[in-house]
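I have been asked to look over a protein record a colleague put together. Thanks in advance; the entry in question is below.
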Amino acid sequence: MAEAQRNNLQIYDDVAAQWWSDDIRWVRTLKNMVPGRLGWFDKQLDWPGKTVLDLGCAGGFMAEALDDRGATVTAIDPAKDAIAAAIAHAKGLSKDIRYDVGVGEALPYADASFDAVVCVDVLEHVQDLPRVIAEVSRVLRPGGMFLFDTINRNPIARL
């Protein structure tokens, strides 16, 4: 079986300098989806005091929202320029979020490190989905929660 290729994620680095500006429609759309996603996630988990991994964080929209909810947040993404934008934005707001560059197939965290892993608009981009799921399982504490969401690929979602 041929190895799957990771989607080209250069687009995240290409817009990193404007990530928080609202100038780019598709990035603004991602930011505007955070409250709706959190509305559902909030029903699943009480965030204060929880250690949470934001897997595929890009420029940090969800990571900052989770930090605002009282979680201790670590976030990871392969787009190094997007991570730099996330670090700069969080620092400007005095947020204590750990940002790392890396991929879901090889998470650089110890076993049972997190109470929850949050993953939005990421799983369709990964090179090896079973490996990512195994890594998520490995870094979750017993009883931990994996919360994920992605945009459906249909005509309504395209609107």
Q: What stands out?
A: The radius of gyration is 15 Å. The chain has six helices and five strands. The beta strands are 51-55, 72-77, 98-101, 114-120, 140-149.
